[in-house]
Specification:
The structure holds two protein chains of two kinds.
Chain A (H helix, E strand, L loop, with lengths): L1 E4 L2 H6 L3 E3 L5 H11 L7 E2 L2 E2 L3 E5 L3 E3 L11 E6 L5
Parallel strand pairs in A: 1-7
Antiparallel strand pairs in A: 1-2, 3-4, 5-6, 5-7
Chain B lengths: L10 E6 L4 E6 L2 H7 L2 H12 L13 E4 L13 E7 L6 E7 L1 H8 L4 E5 L6 E6 L2 E6 L8 H12 L4 E4 L2 H4 L7 E3 L2 E3 L4 H7 L2 E7 L9 H14 L6 H6 L4 H8 L20 H7 L2 E4 L9 E4 L7 E2 L2 H7 L8 H14 L3 H16 L13 H13 L3 H5 L3 H8 L9 E2 L2 E2 L9 H9 L12 H4 L12 H19 L12 H13 L5 H22 L10 H5 L12 H15 L2
Parallel strand pairs in B: 1-6, 7-12
Antiparallel strand pairs in B: 1-2, 3-4, 3-6, 4-5, 7-8, 9-12, 10-11, 13-14, 14-15, 16-17
Helix pairs in contact in B: 1-2, 2-19, 2-21, 11-13, 12-14, 17-19, 17-23, 19-20, 19-21, 19-23, 20-21
The chains are: A alpha+beta, B alpha+beta.
């Protein structure tokens, strides 16, 4: 599955996206925090910090760590505040 | 006379330019507590003036600069003011906010609001020097850009004056002209045209009067703590990238309005994104007076003067017009700022005209999507009201009525105000917020998009459950716009109403509870609606253009909002509001 970083998340990660296997959202976030320590103010264990949200495939927003993921999924990580 | 409450002067200054008179009108403490300041107090003042039926550009239609209880305090982001009047674009109430030194100077003039009515005999500057009022000729500033006028007046009057001015667009009655201060704009709804109709090029203020605060030491401590919190992750987006960072995220989610809302993705988004722009341009950051967030990101543009870049300007002058040239979008944004034109309405109206030209409804073959040169030319023509610019200076709704061919269906506006950069079919709670907004399609008076960017709703299939969320965001905005605090601070608050009540208590001494502020929010929203009712509002206005209700979003068939569903949402909104 693919993780796409938007905005501040991209700034912190230093890349636009990364690909690795994960069965659930929680697993994916835990792996991210290990692989990208600079995401410390964005990812907290198996969850995102309140100022950030995850979106599955550009469709629905998800937060439950048990949310299942499949190989073709893309998880977007972006700021929760969409104010313009 | 009753003593002024803490945090207020307890009266407004009313200037009649036709008669050359001014008076201080008391503002009862009861009214101040009920409407606070900014947008809320402005709505009350307009209702008191009884001017809702007047033409927005008529001399008798007043315009109010309204300050707030928090302005002048050390609370971060509190240096803001509201400009409230009837809008010449929507013929409904308009409250535009801007920031910085003008707000503080206005409050120091010894009043809580300045109401301007009448019309000066010639182009003039209204000068208020610590409460002393005079008019000075400004005919030499005719045609000056916003920045030129401000610099000239500060040089003439003294650097300690704070100046709000209009550009050529305001002088010529462009219906979405802005009022500018220090490069920031009271941008939406055409308050610049109202000032221009009063023959005022600018308002210049300075003063020394400061109201006392009820609990100054506690207020200082609270302010320090709030500032510290404002440096956290909730504001990182604004601090590090600015609002422009929405662009790529919105494009990825398919909610970036493109080519006059024909689609929600733009193939040129990367080229005009801040991530790309900063690769080749130097960037500086700035902030309003008293602000600790610093959301302004200013990019170099091949000369000494930079350009402030906001998401709304990038979307309106970029994807909405199909323009993918970063230099052109930056130039267009700066041009709008200099001429004193709202970038959202300019982009919306030009994009609408581009589609009309493409369909053969408008004889302007040069005005086509993707052409940056055409967009820049259109902006210049609008500000001068020359040629097609005279039509486009009226905004997309009036232009559609003149063009015919049923083009109202694709005019991107609600109540005449052009829709900001949130695709309504894919963000349907926001669609409701746009439809019911007192000043038209408005992302500042309704933050309903927050709900769409969450798990609370399915953003493409919103049900009546979303209505309460839309009301919540509208109510919260009413309080923030009346206290006044910047909305970019909202993520910092744990319990917004409780913290707002505490700030108000520290400044005014009032024993305000969160529940009272919730009532205050509803009262303020209701006051705006009451003004609109006097101005001729009917429930049928609370809708979206046919395009959004008759066709799904191109490339995203699930993003469809039927007329029936929107009507159900609006009816439920009216029911919950008690209207």
């Amino acid at each position: 599955m693919r993780v796409e970083f938007m905005g501040i998340a991209r700034e912190r990660a230093g890349t636009a996206e990364v690909t690795f296997p994960a069965a659930t959202l929680g697993q994916m976030l835990a792996m991210l925090s290990t692989r990208f320590p600079m995401l410390g103010d964005i990812v907290n264990g198996e969850r995102l910090q309140p100022a950030f949200v995850a979106n599955l495939n550009g469709d629905r927003f998800v937060s439950d760590p048990a949310t299942p993921l499949v190989e073709d999924d893309s998880v977007l990580i972006l700021s929760a505040d969409a104010g313009g | 006379m009753a003593p002024s409450p803490f945090g207020y002067h307890g009266h407004c200054l009313r200037v009649d330019l036709s008669r050359g008179t001014s008076e201080r009108t008391p503002l009862p403490e009861r009214v101040l507590r009920q409407f606070l300041g900014g947008s809320g107090l402005g709505a009350w003042l307009l209702l008191e003036e009884g001017c809702a039926g007047a033409d927005a550009l008529a001399p008798e239609a007043p315009l109010a600069f309204v300050f707030s209880p928090l302005v002048g305090s050390p609370l971060t982001t509190s240096a803001k003011f509201a400009v409230v009047s009837k809008s010449p674009l929507t013929d409904r109430i308009n409250d535009s906010l801007a920031s910085s030194g003008f707000a503080i100077a206005g409050k120091r003039c010894g009043c809580d609001a300045i109401v301007v009515a009448g019309r000066a005999p010639e182009l003039s500057t209204l000068i208020i020097d610590d409460g002393r009022i005079r008019l000075e000729r400004a005919v030499d500033l005719r045609g000056a850009t916003c920045g030129e006028a401000e610099r000239a007046l500060k040089a003439r009057l003294g650097a300690d004056y704070q100046v709000a001015s209009i550009g050529p667009a305001g002088e010529r009655g462009v219906r979405y002209a802005t009022i500018s201060h220090d490069g920031r704009h009271a941008g939406r709804g055409g308050s610049g045209a109202v000032l221009g109709a009063k023959n005022l090029k600018a308002v210049a203020l300075r003063g020394t009067q400061r109201p006392a605060w009820a609990h100054p030491h506690e207020l200082a401590e609270y302010s320090k703590a709030l500032s510290k919190r404002s440096f956290g992750p909730a504001t990182a987006k604004y601090r590090e990238l600015g609002t422009a960072s929405n662009l790529l995220a919105f494009n990825r989610l398919g909610v970036l309005p493109t080519r006059n809302f024909q689609t929600g993705t733009f193939e040129g988004a990367s080229a005009i994104s801040p991530e790309e722009i900063r690769q080749t341009r130097s960037r500086t950051r700035a902030s309003c007076v008293t602000c600790t967030i610093g959301c302004e990101h200013i990019y170099a543009l091949g000369d000494d003067e930079g350009v402030r870049i906001e998401y709304e300007s990038l979307f309106a002058l970029g994807s909405l017009c199909g323009v993918a040239e970063a230099d052109v979008v930056l130039r267009a944004s700066r041009l709008c700022d200099e001429l004193g034109i709202d970038t959202i309405s300019a982009g919306g109206t030009i994009a609408f005209a581009m589609e009309c030209a493409e369909r053969g409804w408008l004889d302007a073959p040069w005005l086509r999507f993707e052409s940056g040169r055409a967009m820049l030319r259109a902006i210049e023509l609008i500000a001068r009201r020359e040629g097609i610019g005279n039509l486009l200076a009226e905004g997309s709704r009036r232009a559609a009525d003149a063009i015919g061919h049923g083009s109202r269906a694709i005019a991107p506006q609600v109540k005449g105000l052009e829709i900001p950069g949130y695709e309504p079919r894919a963000l349907q709670t926001m669609a409701l917020g746009f439809a019911v907004g007192a000043r038209g399609a408005d992302h500042n008076r309704s933050g309903a998009y927050e709900v769409d960017f969450s798990e609370k709703v399915d953003r493409r299939r919103v049900t009546v459950d979303a209505v309460r969320y839309a009301i919540e965001t509208e109510d919260r905005a009413a309080i923030m716009d009346s206290l006044i605090l910047c909305k970019f601070l909202r993520g910092v608050f744990g319990d917004f109403y409780a913290e707002s009540a505490e700030m108000l208590r520290l400044v005014t001494g009032w024993d305000v509870a969160a529940a009272e502020l919730r009532e205050t929010a509803r009262r303020i929203v209701g006051a705006k609606r009451r003004f609109n009712a006097f101005a001729g509002w009917t429930p049928e206005e609370d809708t979206l253009p046919d395009r959004f209700l008759e066709t799904a979003l191109e490339g995203d068939p699930a993003a469809a909002l039927s007329r029936e569903r929107l009507e159900t949402l609006v009816a439920e909104y009216h029911r919950q509001r008690g209207w």
